[in-house]
Design goal:
- This protein has a single domain (3-108), classed as Rossmann fold, CATH 3.40.50.
- Helix content is 37%, strand content 18%.
- It contains four helices and five strands; from the N terminus they run E-H-E-H-E-H-E-H-E.
- It has a five-stranded parallel sheet, with helices on both faces.
- Helix 1 crosses helix 4.
- The longest helix is centred in the last third of the chain and has 14 residues, at 84-97.
Amino acid sequence: MARLYSNENFPLPVVERLRNLGHDVLTIQETGKANQSMSDEDVLAFANKEKRILLTLNRRHFINLHKQNQQHVGIVACTFDPDFSGFANRIDEALRKEYDLSQKVIRVNRDQQ
């Protein structure tokens, strides 16, 4: 399963569901780095140092970092969805489809039902 790092505003119920699905998810809160106004560059650098794929709702900024040729283990850029279980399942499904996310961005969008 994937090693993930969730950005500060990422919903904890989604993190918990991903853990139940077998993913190793570390939150920014668990690292003691929450509420420190870390730059997106620093968040991505920490994820890379820990060899974790970044989970974020801050799509535009992290996609821009990716386009600037930032080295990274992978980015999962998501659209917020209040259906946390469905949200986590879509992330899980997207991760299972990719063998290697290095230098890639995966977009996980809200279910359009």
